[in-house]
Design brief:
Elements lengths: L8 E3 L2 E6 L2 E8 L6 E10 L5 E5 L12 E3 L2 E7 L5 E13 L2 E10 L8 E3 L1 H4 L3 E3 L14 H10 L1 H9 L4
Parallel strand pairs: 1-11, 3-10, 4-9
Antiparallel strand pairs: 2-3, 2-8, 4-5, 4-10, 5-6, 7-8, 8-9
Helix pairs in contact: 2-3
Length: about 170
């Protein structure tokens, strides 16, 4: 007899999740990423060979200061969207997405310069969620306002080009 599959829940391009007991965490849904990533800081290996870290960073609105420890971790070579490679720790954390409880494998990274502190990749989504990109997700960090960029471009196109576009020459 075939096991009945749960219906897939539909989520947008971003959502709010709970992770490791922290609620209302903004997360970017990225079907182009294989694995999920979460902002972590104070990462170290203890004398008992446990991986110890905090989620987010001091000063961030979601930072609790709670030190998480695990013996279940791996290392993973990650290639980002620009092709740069780095080695990161990989851990599983309890997560709730759209009411569904799952354990997601996350790489620990400094996501301070990213728009979202958590990125949800394909491995976490597969068989559980459908992504509808027409569904508006959550607004989180605003990028540099395009009107500001366009005002700068209008004021001095040559200077704008040198500042933003000519770096790769």
């Amino acid at each position: 007899m075939q096991k009945k599959q749960k219906p897939l829940k539909i989520i947008g391009n971003s959502t709010r999740i709970s992770v490791a007991g922290i609620n209302d965490v903004p997360a970017k849904v990225d079907t182009g990423a294989t694995i999920s990533s979460i902002w972590a800081s104070n990462i170290c290996i203890t004398s008992n060979n446990e991986l110890e870290f905090t989620l987010f960073t001091p000063g961030h609105e979601l930072y609790t200061g709670e030190r998480l420890r695990t013996r279940e971790f791996k290392a993973r070579n990650i290639r980002n969207s620009t092709g740069q490679e780095s080695v990161r720790y990989l851990v599983k954390l309890p997560t709730v997405i759209n009411g569904r409880r799952i354990r997601i494998s996350y790489t620990l990274a400094n996501r301070g310069k990213n728009d979202f502190p958590v990125l949800i990749g394909r491995q976490a989504l597969k068989g559980k969620f459908l992504v509808d990109v027409s569904k508006l997700g959550v607004a989180y960090k605003a990028r540099k306002v395009n009107s500001t960029l366009n005002a700068e471009l209008s004021a001095d196109p040559q200077k704008f080009h040198q500042k933003y576009m000519a770096q790769g020459k």
